[in-house]
Write a structure and sequence with these properties.
With 204 residues, this protein is an all-beta fold. It has one domain. 0% of the residues lie in helices and 49% in strands. The strands form four sheets. Strands 5, 6, 7, 8, 10, 11, 14, 15 and 16 form a nine-stranded antiparallel sheet that branches. Strands 9-12-13 form a three-stranded antiparallel sheet, with no helix packed on it. Strands 1-2 form a two-stranded antiparallel sheet. It is elongated and about 45 Å long.
């Protein structure tokens, strides 16, 4: 329940992520603002900018909802990988927020997001590392403390999906806490891009 808590990249996230393109066998994946047949437009200035479409939730044992936030954002700066079409895009999360939560929820660091392209549709799998989120005033479910801190480390968050209007980032992640005796949870939610939106795997 390394609670990137509702980002990622993405919360991430962030997770973040806007448009993912593989530019041929001699180029790395990169984030793109516009999908064109000959390459990636405006990728150098693309930014990670996602907002939760609805509530993001963390559920604990027996499906008990530990925390729900109705407002969450993931923002950051992406960078391309090495000259290898299998190299993921990484992004530093500069802002990760969770607001209007049922528990007092604080963010320590946003960490980084990594996006690896899959297939030719432009979708990608998203992982998070180094994000830290603490949830306070938790109920005692399995003898856990009232405050639990969570940190991601190569944690699989979910899928970035291409769209003609706005990319979506769907989270379905198992998160474990770094705090002793805190329950493992399932983090779920959906984010939509408020920045660049086109995703496609291009080859030359």
């Amino acid at each position: 329940m390394k609670y990137l808590k509702m980002l990622g990249l993405a919360a991430i996230a962030a997770a973040a992520l806007t448009a993912l393109v593989g530019v041929g066998s001699a180029s790395a994946y990169t984030l793109c603002e516009e999908n064109v047949a000959t390459g990636c437009k405006s990728h150098a200035s693309s930014t990670i900018d996602f907002s939760a479409e609805d509530s993001v939730k963390l559920a604990g044992p027996f499906g008990i909802v530990l925390d729900t936030c109705t407002v969450s954002t993931v923002q950051g700066t992406p960078s391309t990988g090495a000259d290898d079409e299998k190299t993921a895009v990484t992004g530093t999360v500069t802002s990760l927020t969770f607001e209007k939560c049922t528990r007092n929820t604080t963010v320590g660091t946003g960490g980084t997001l990594s996006i690896t392209g899959s297939g030719t549709a432009g979708n990608g799998s998203v992982t998070s590392s180094g994000a830290t989120v603490t949830i306070h005033e938790l109920p005692n479910i399995v003898g856990n403390p009232s405050t639990c801190a969570y940190t991601t480390e190569k944690t699989a968050l979910g899928t970035l999906t291409a769209s003609a209007t706005a990319a979506t980032f769907d989270i379905a992640a198992t998160i474990t806490s770094e705090t002793a005796n805190c329950p493992t949870g399932t983090w779920s939610g959906s984010y939509v891009s408020t920045g660049p939106t086109i995703i496609r795997h291009l080859s030359h």
